[in-house]
Here is the input.
Amino acid sequence: MGLLGKRKKKSNTLPKAEYIVFEKISSDDDKYITELASNIMAGNVLIFNVEEYDIDGVNKAIAFLYGVIYAIDGVVYRVADKIFLFGPKDTFDDGTVHALLKTFE
Here is the structure.
């Protein structure tokens, strides 16, 4: 191949959501919630279990994460009564996350 020759693009076989983070709320500490938000902003999907935690802490975490989702034009799905899925909208394009959600139905 010459200096200006075209290279074949490598096919990316990984789904857009390379990581799915499963997290059971353990704290309503700002640093902890910010780390969860950073995972979402990095393109990861967060499955967030809020069972067995006080309602005030859950409200604080959920409100913050909803704000992050709004800012990045992401999506939120309610998987179960106290389990939520947060993620960037483009991670749902390839169907991997939708297939995961169907396993919960």
